[in-house]
Amino acid sequence: MGSNQLVAFAIAAIFVLPTIAMAAEYVVGDNNGWKTDVNYTEWASGKVFYVGDKLVFTYGPPHNVYKVDGAGFKDCKPSGDLYSTGNDTFTLMKSGKKWYICGYNDHCQKGQKLVINVESNGPVPAPIPAPTATPTATPSPTPASNDSYRSFVLSWYQIFLAAIVTMVVAAF
Ligand SMILES: [Cu+2]
């Protein structure tokens, strides 16, 4: 039972930990946040976004965020859900292009628009050959030796107890 949990943990560690370690969080515009008069194309250039990464839009009123399609981005036409908390996080779920605009007034026309390209996770596959060996190697030996060690200790404890009982009985 304990070794199964160990194997499960090892598998989880191999597959899950690298993805967690690699997921990045980007504050759109960095210190500028989300507003007009910031070049978001410039901000995005040189960054590589992967599935699992997060975009955080930080802003004050009257700004907002709409996640639109290519046409909505080009024409500055809001559609879909309105995000207006001032701190909106978007997890990049799929690869491909993503478009975001501010729907307030002419802010989008003034450049408050962001397009990024999301890559499917590339660098992860490297450690994958390893796990096939790990589960087969661990299962049987650990519980067997553990059990035999336990029964070994138990039997010595019984002998010790028996010896004390014998001594006590002999004393009377
Ligand atoms: Cu705005």
TrEMBL record:
It is found in: Membrane. GO terms for molecular function: electron transfer activity; metal ion binding. It is a single-pass type I membrane protein. Residues 1-23 form the signal peptide. One of its GO terms (biological process) is response to symbiotic fungus. The keyword Glycoprotein applies. The chain crosses the membrane at residues 153-171. One of its GO terms (cellular component) is plasma membrane. Keywords: Copper, Disulfide bond, Electron transport, Glycoprotein, Membrane, Metal-binding, Signal, Transmembrane, Transmembrane helix, Transport. It comes from the Eukaryota. Residues 24-120 form the Phytocyanin domain. This is Phytocyanin domain-containing protein. It comes from Manihot esculenta.
